[in-house]
From TrEMBL, chain A:
PANTHER family with a match to the protein in the record: PROTEIN PHOSPHATASE PP2A REGULATORY SUBUNIT B
Keywords: Repeat, WD repeat
InterPro entries attached to this UniProt entry: PP2A_PR55, PP2A_PR55_CS, WD40/YVTN_repeat-like_dom_sf, WD40_repeat_dom_sf, WD40_rpt
GO molecular function terms attached to this record: protein phosphatase regulator activity
Cross-referenced SUPFAM superfamilies: WD40 repeat-like (SSF50978)
Gene3D superfamilies assigned: YVTN repeat-like/Quinoprotein amine dehydrogenase
Source organism of this protein record: Heterocephalus glaber
Protein name per the record: Serine/threonine-protein phosphatase 2A 55 kDa regulatory subunit B
SMART domains (alphabetical): WD40
UniProtKB/TrEMBL annotation, chain B:
Annotated Pfam families: IER
Source organism phylogeny: Eukaryota, Metazoa, Chordata, Craniata, Vertebrata
Protein name: Immediate early response gene 5 protein
Annotated region described as Disordered, given as residue ranges: 59-142, 154-287
Family: Belongs to the IER family.
């Protein structure tokens, strides 16, 4: 397969040629669980790239300004700020340990010099302000340069403190903490297009928050049955529409998506639209229900489409058509015959994410063996690429990979049984405007760029 | 036939997952347990739809090694000749009732006595602490066990469990299960009365008397020493190994549409919490009871009271 067709290129004539750019993280074979990356997100401009890990830390990378001396080398991402967002907690009342793993990070649109992001673990959402400090005031009257207080009686003259430059310091401070609103595990947060509210979703409920108000949130979806014995599905992901601030969608473990309009009623238990594809009875198995559970839902940038990821495929839906998706892309169909083994080793419960490119012409999602897949919606071509240290020479092109599903294995192909199911790419992100992608492979973050033709 | 084997294996694996989910960090995950319960239900359906219910897995065939680690549980319980439908796994939903020596290693000696109902109850209880498991267990419990033959007849309440039920005839299973199973069987009928008796098994076990405990003092002792929950779970697993799966599945059989109850991830009170789940374990407790739980509500009450 050749490189995926281009998004953002005129007339779609150029193929993507993905090249390795950078890799962040330890090379060590022994991966500490706390270092496993659990979420990746570009900000609105693409200049900042945030990652969250299982240890509750957030690391933000910033893209360097392109230098005039090397115009062909795009800016690299370097560490901008690192902070501990969440700590492990213990709920004594319920004897529950609350993991510090960062489930999601969502950036707020930038409104001033500082950057804001929301990060969440299973129970608590925090709003962080990341600001730069590159000046320091000097010449105080009441204290020395080293901070010691001066005796007021000894001051004979007054001076006006002046600002002097200092080494850039990036500070992260928690500005809001939104806690105690979720009984179940939070799986999604989504900032509204009004830039004032956001939603948080757990297994059974979705809450609406105002960014300024932490002691109150509104429940807008509640699918908890009166009798828990009758529970048949849970909420797996939720997102606000990118332009219509009254519309959001949420996906379920049954493979359905509901679109809700907050104008219709205060409690959006009744959907406005219901998206479901009828199941193919011929492919029924013990695991049909598990593999139909949707692990991620993302609106396209245009707001006209949405994409859902289930275990074996990615589907693109037109918001105007509820009966079936307009596109279905198989991610790793060769795993269908291995579902029992994948059930045993728990891989069948892996929650893969998916993402759109800036122009909505291509979509990307992860797989096993550190493979990730890209689908070009215009040319209908797809490609499998690998994030590995072996292909980590600067600007080295990524070679398409192929999984051999049976019969004779060709050279350079890898057989299904040789796939490493511990190397899974669950989280990927695409720069909002350029062809730069960030791929999280366990504890390493790979950044690939499209070679300039 | 291979479907039955496959279904059996899947049920074993699923129960193991439910068990393990209780000790996972971060509390029980509702979504994952829901999915596991759906798989369990599918596997059960396949198992039950087998036209030859008598053809249970031969003991040896039984993959005696369910993925779940039975810590310290006496591997002793060999799958033992399945013979007839293996006695229902005593996994009743009662997680923590005493760690009944579920697996009565005792050769099917005629545990047949009465304590069966009680035994059943307890056994089942221990089997799975997980809420989910409980329901499943409960379901299983309904199946009768050899010993419970009589009880079975009497208590044939379980919607489907009984029907599938293990013919009271089987007694020979040297495997542990039988004993355990017995406990489960009459559950539905005896919900109330069983509850209190639930205590007995443990005592009996210790004494070596009572359903099936006799033969396995070691076994019995182990569960007793372990925290209830754990003991139960292991026992449950053990039962599975010895081929109670069929029974378990039958028990599961009926109304199994809901979700497993989620354990608050805490200590004993979880169990209590679970039982009271139906009422509303809202605050932080994720409790989705399997429909089976409905049938065993009396048990809940009893357990809670206990």
């Amino acid at each position: 397969m050749a490189g995926a067709g281009g998004g953002g290129c005129p007339a779609g004539s150029n193929d993507f040629q993905w090249c390795f750019s950078q890799v962040k993280g330890a090379v060590d074979e022994d991966v500490a669980e706390a270092d496993i990356i659990s979420t990746v997100e570009f900000n609105y401009s693409g200049d900042l790239l945030a990652t969250g890990d299982k240890g509750g830390r957030v690391v933000i990378f910033q893209r360097e300004q392109e230098s005039k001396s090397r115009p062909h080398s795009r800016g690299e991402y370097n560490v901008y700020s690192t902070f501990q967002s969440h700590e492990p907690e213990f709920d004594y009342l319920k004897s529950l340990e609350i993991e510090e793993k960062i489930n999601k990070i969502r950036w707020l649109p930038q409104q001033n010099a500082a950057h804001f992001l929301l990060s969440t673990n299973d129970k608590t959402i925090k709003l962080w302000k990341i600001s730069e400090r590159d000046k320091r005031a000097e010449g105080y009257n009441l204290k020395d340069e080293d901070g010691r207080l001066r005796d007021p009686f000894r001051i004979t003259a007054l001076r006006v403190p002046i600002l002097k430059p200092m080494d850039l310091m990036v500070e992260a401070s928690p500005r809001r903490i939104f806690a105690n609103a979720h009984t179940y595990h939070i799986n999604s947060i989504s900032v509204n297009s009004d830039h004032e509210t956001y939603l948080s979703a757990d297994d059974l409920r979705i809450n609406l928050w105002h960014l300024e108000i932490t002691d109150r949130s509104f429940n807008i979806v509640d699918i908890k049955p009166a009798n828990m014995e009758e529970l048949t599905e849970v909420i797996t992901a939720a997102e606000f529409h990118p332009h219509q601030c009254n519309v959001f969608v949420y996906s379920s473990s049954k493979g359905t998506i509901r679109l809700c309009d907050m104008r219709s009623s205060a409690l959006c238990d009744r959907h406005s639209k219901f998206f479901e594809e009828p199941e193919d009875p011929s492919s029924r198995s013990f695991f049909s229900e598990i593999i139909s559970s949707i692990s991620d839902v993302k609106f396209s940038h245009s707001g006209r489409y949405m994409m859902t990821r289930d275990y074996l495929s990615v589907k693109v839906w037109d918001l105007n058509m509820e009966s079936r998706p307009v596109e279905t892309h198989q991610v790793h169909e060769y795993l269908r015959s291995k579902l029992c083994s994948l059930y045993e080793n728990d891989c069948i419960f892996d929650k893969f994410e998916c993402c759109w490119n800036g122009s909505d012409s291509a979509i990307m999602t992860g797989s096993y063996n550190n493979f990730f897949r890209m689908f070009d919606r215009n040319t209908r071509r797809d490609v499998t690429l690998e994030a590995s240290r072996e292909n980590s020479k600067p600007r080295a092109s990524l070679k398409p990979r192929k999984v051999c599903t049976g019969g004779k294995r060709k050279k350079d192909e890898i057989s299904v049984d040789s796939l490493d199911f511990n190397k899974k790419i669950l989280h990927t992100a695409w720069h909002p405007m350029e062809n730069i992608i960030a791929v999280a492979a366990t504890n390493n973050l790979y950044i690939f760029q499209d070679k300039i033709n | 036939m291979e479907f039955k084997l496959e279904a059996h294996r899947i049920v074993s694996i699923s129960l193991g997952k439910i068990y393990n989910s209780r000790v996972q960090r971060g509390g029980i995950k509702l979504h994952k347990n829901l999915l596991v319960s759906l798989v369990l239900r599918s596997a059960r359906q396949v198992y039950l739809s087998d036209p030859c219910p008598g053809l249970y897995l031969a003991g040896s065939a039984g993959t005696p090694a369910p993925p779940t680690p039975q810590p310290g549980e006496p591997t002793a319980q060999p799958p033992a000749g399945w013979g007839e439908p293996p006695p229902p796994a005593p996994r009743a939903a009662w997680p923590d009732t005493e760690p009944q020596p579920e697996r009565p290693a005792v050769p099917d000696a005629p545990r047949a006595v009465d304590p069966e109902p009680a035994a059943a109850v307890t056994g089942a209880g221990d089997a799975f602490r997980g809420r989910e498991e409980d329901t499943a267990e409960a379901a299983w419990g309904r199946v009768d066990r050899p010993r419970v033959a009589a009880a079975v007849a009497v208590s044939d309440v379980s919607p489907e469990g009984a029907s599938v039920g293990c013919p009271p005839t089987r007694e020979e299973q040297p495997g542990a299960s039988p004993a355990a199973d017995c406990r489960c069987a009459p559950r539905p009928a005896e919900a109330e009365p069983s509850a209190p008796p639930a205590l007995y098994p443990r005592k009996r076990g210790a004494a070596g008397a009572g359903g099936g405990h006799a033969g396995c003092p070691a076994l019995c002792s182990t569960p007793l020493k372990k925290p209830r929950r754990d003991g139960g779970e292991e026992d449950g697993e053990e039962e599975m190994e010895t081929g109670n799966v069929a029974n378990l599945i039958s028990i599961f059989g009926s109304s199994f549409s809901g979700l497993l109850r989620k354990s608050p991830g805490g200590g004993r009170e979880e169990e209590e919490g679970e039982e009271s789940g139906p009422e509303d374990a809202e605050p932080g407790q994720i409790c989705c009871d399997k429909p089976v739980l409905r049938d065993i509500n009396p048990w809940s009450t009893a357990i809670v009271a206990f």
